[in-house]
Structures are given as C-alpha cells and as structure tokens.
Amino acid sequence: MHHMGRRDFIRYSALLAATLSTPALQGCATPRKNVPSSFDFTKPFLIKNANLVDIHSGNIVEKAWLMIHRGKIVRQGVGEAQNNDHGFVFDLKGWYLIPGLIDGHCHSTMSPVFSMRMIDLRKHAIVQKHNFVAAIESGITTIRDMGAFPDILQSFIRLINNRSLIGPRVVYCNSMLNVMGSHPEIPPSDVNIFAGPASLFIGSVMNNFESTKEMKACLEENVRGASFIKLTLDNQTLFCKKNKEIPVYTKEQLDYIFKFAEQKGLPVSGHHTFKFGFDRAMEYPFNSIEHIVGDVILSDEDIMKMAKRNLAIVPTMTVGQSFLMEEAFDELPVKYRTPVILQELQARKEFFTVEATKYCNPLFHEQNLSALKYYKTIGIDHLWENKKFLVNPEIFFNVINNGYVNLRKMHQAGVLIGCGIDAGMPFCYFGSNFREYEILKRVGFANIDILRCATINNAKILGMENKIGSLDTGKYADMVALDKNPLQDIRALRTPQMVFKQGDLMFSATDRYLLNTSKTEPASTQPSV
Question: Which residues are CB-neighbours of 24 under 8 A, at least 6 positions away?
C-alpha cells in the first residue's frame, strides 16, 4: 500500500467510496423474517390477549387489546374487543407487549473494529447495512446516532423510509463537532489511508476545526437536518499515549455553540469520561451527557446539582465492560480484583467467547481479539507511535469500579437515565443491547426501571416522549412482543418474538401464522394472526 502509484491510489479510493456507498444503490428490499408479504399494514388491525407492560405504573395489564391504524394506537382496552374495522387480528395468547426499545447512543455507520483492511471493505459495507436490521431484530425501533458519516447515513435513512431496508427510526447529529486533536483524536488516515479521499463521497465522522471562525462554518453546515449537536468535553485521551492531554473548547466557543443551539432549537449532548468533562457540562445547559465519570466517585453535591439541572445521562456501561482490557496484564493487578470488576470480566468473557459472533461478522470479532495482543507484543507505552489505537486499561477499570457507584447514586437521586451501548465501537455490536440491560440489573436497577431507561427515558432524552416510549393512545405503534415476563426476568429482552415499528410488523421470530378469518379461535398455542 505504501508503494502504490497514483493510478492505483485513485482506483482504490474510488473502490472504497463505491463500496461504502453501495447501500444507496441497492434497489432490492431486505426481506422481513417470517412476515408474509400479503399483510397490508396500512389498514387497521387489532392486537388482543396481550399482557401489556404499563411503563408508567410498572403493572401488567392482562388481556389487553390495542387497535392500530395509520401507524398509531387509536384505541385500547381490556377483555374482548370487536375488530369493527375488518383488519387483521393478532392474538398474542398471553405474550407480553412492551413499547419499542430505543437505543440512546450508537454509531450506525461505523464498523466495530480497531482498524480496517482494504480486502475487507465489502464486508464492512454489509455490516453497516446489517446494523439497522440487527437493531430491529433486537426490538429497537428508534436509534440516536451520536456521530456518523453523514452522506452514507442519509443513504440508509432513504432506504429505510422507502422500505427497501428494515431499520429503526433514526435521530442523528450528523458528524461530531470537535476541536482538532481532541477525542477521538485518531487521524482517519491512520486507520485507513483512503479515509481522506472517501470523505469526499461519504462525509466524515468528525468535523474537526482549528479556529473559532472554522468552528462556526462547521457548525452551520453540520446541523442541516440534524436533531441535536454532539460535543466532546474531556481534557484527557482515552488511548495509550505518553502525552495524555488533549485540547478543549474555549469558553468563547462554548458560549457561541449554546447561543447557536438555542436559536436553532437544538439540544446539545456532551461526551465525557472524566470529572473535568462533567464539571464543564455543569456550566452549560446540556440536554444529556454520554458515558459515565470513571476517574472519581462523584460527591452527593455533584449528583444533586446534576439532578436539579435536569441533566440526563446515557451511561453506556457496556463499552466500559468491553474495554476491561485484562489482556494488557500478565496478572490482573490486585486493585482491580474487586467483586464488581470480576463480575463484569466474567460477563465480558462469556459474551466474547459464546455470544459475540451472533452479532458480528466472526472475522471482525477475531480481528478485534487479535488486536488485544498488541498490549504485550508492542507494549502499552509504544502502541500510539506504532498506530495501534487501543484504550488505556486503567481508565475503563475505573469506569466500572467508580461508574457503578456513580450510576447508582444518580438513579437514587432521580436523574433521568437512558440506555445505549455505543454500538459501532469495537466489541459493542449492534443487536446486543441486552448487555446494557443486564449490567443495569447488576448495578441494582429494578426491571421496570431498566425498561424505562430503554423506552420512555430515552424518548424524553430524544424529545420524542409525545410520540414514542410508551403504549399510550395517540402514540406511534412501536411495540415488541415477548414470550416471557420482562418484569420477572430481564433476559426476556434477548429474544423478541415480534417487533412493530409505527404499526408495521418488521420482524417475527415465528413463521407459524394463522390468519384469523372466522370467530373460531385457532388451535395453535402460538400467538397467531
């Protein structure tokens, strides 16, 4: 690669752009698993005999029915319901019905690897497309994309909107707006030498600026079509570097951004992992902060200040667990052998060895695992200079140790807590959001509170609580049917049986459909149509 000529350089640059833009050119629709093509969901239909989970009260409403029309819940009740509108009847036969889940923090156009090889570009394009399908199949009907390749994201959204691609509703910020050299400070060309030319075709995940004037231009361009603005707040790197300090926004720049955001009516979200970033967030009217403070345990005063400011958080504990890089040590240091860390290391090992390849191309997962060997073969102090971009293990061991405590304190103080796994990052694979739900359970959250984090809380963070997040009359018919009670076992969220987005059946785990054309109930014990 380092010896290719100009002609090869142009050829491979074009190949990269064409590969990554492939989704916009594919005309064939993604097949819906076990959903007969004859179903017409533009007509009214009835769902009955559901055990409906009321997100507000935390109760189960037995024998619930809902009438769906034009993508919304138009009527609902309990007991027998006549389908006077002559549509389909879904008899859930006691399955549990919850609101569509919401992923509050992900990167849908990212490939979850530490680095990319040219030979794998086609596979990466397929993974990017599959991210949206995987979200739906895991019960997620809305995602908040926290930084994307804007042009390719728009291509995917168009495919979803014209029903050529199964995918969730997408709320997005376009690129992340950031000071040059701040997080994530990895030069794109160091990940793949064609990143620069490709950005002409697919945009860039980062809008890096070097001056306030340049920042203003980037900001104006980046918010077109966006629903919020994403910033980063920390003054320290997450990577294994000798120089740990990274540049931050000036007060002048932050003042301008928030004045601009207010004029545009856009909320602002801030990435942070250190107390420095948390303190900066307290100085401005952020809508939410992302990730969790790991370098210290926050004081009660800090937590109460956060609660009084109505500052929400999406803690993404899954990325903290994923980056518990025990591979960096010959033997785990004593200070990290806490019950909390040992528990999460065991969960991490189980996911990596048993479950990960269900949610990621096995080749990419193996590449990620192989990259962890660099901690020892190259050494932590030399990773950056050798362009091996691995995180500093100490940071994420602290994210789990201290983050557990901080998150529990926030929950007890009534802070609005959302849910997301930073899907698109290495080891954080789309469709595996159950990892976050189960971490929240181990932190001490009740099952109903976990469901609220993944539904109505996320909806509030997105500013969409009047449309999604609960099964209320007048809201979008985003619904997930489960065969087990999630209030008794949070692992029920691992296996959605049916997923509806805006009244449209996007996925079903069973193909045993029986069309209800008479008053006689089907003999099958499976929920039926």
Answer: 152, 155, 156, 158, 159
AA letter at 112: P
Judge contact between 143 and 177, C-beta under 8 A.
no
pTM of the model: 0.92
Please state, as a whole number, how many other Cβ atoms lie within 10 Å of the Cβ of residue 224.
Answer: 8
Closest listed residue to residue 195, CA positions, set 204, 186, 183 = 204
- Beta carbons of 226 and 172 less than 8 angstroms apart: yes
Q: How far apart are the first and last CA of the chain?
A: 56
Distance (Å, whole) CA 228 – CA 174: 9
Query: How far is the C-alpha of 283 from the C-alpha of 248, rounded, in Å?
Result: 14
Residue 188: the pLDDT is 56
Whether 52 shows a pLDDT value over 90: the answer reads yes
Instruction: Say if residue 194's pLDDT is above 80.
Output: no
CA angle 498, 49, 47 (to 5 degrees): 55
Q: Nearest CA to 143 among 411, 436, 468?
A: 468
Cβ burial of 83 (10 Å; 0-12, 13-18, 19+) is middle
Distance CA 430, CA 521 (A): 38
**Cα 234 from Cα 232, distance rounded (Å):** 6
Q: Which helix (H) or strand (E) holds 160?
A: helix 150-161
CA dist list (Å): 61 to 68, 83, 313, 450, 469? 18, 20, 30, 19, 17
Nearest to 347 by CA among 366, 327, 373, 321: 321
The pairing of strands 60-69 and 45-53 is antiparallel
Q: Which of 117-126, 218-227, 366-375 has the lowest mean pLDDT?
A: 117-126
229-232 vs 268-271, strand pairing mode? parallel
Distance CA 73, CA 51 (A): 16
Extract the tokens encoding 174: 């376009």
Specify the 3-state DSSP secondary structure of 227. Answer: coil
Residue 461 contacts residue 288 (beta carbons within 8 Å): yes
Query: What pLDDT is recorded for position 205?
Result: 73
Q: How far apart (Å, rounded) are the C-alpha atoms in residues 353 and 350?
A: 5
SS (H, E, C) 2-37: CCCCHHHHHHHHHHHHHHHCHHHHCCCCCCCCCCCC
Give dist(CA 457, CA 104) in Å, integer: 9
Strand segments (E) across 57-168:
60-69, 72-78, 89-91, 96-99, 101-106, 140-145
> Which 3 state secondary structure label does DSSP give 481?
strand
Residues in Cβ contact with 507 at an 8 Å cutoff, skipping those fewer than 6 apart? 32, 33, 34, 35, 136, 137, 166, 496, 498, 499
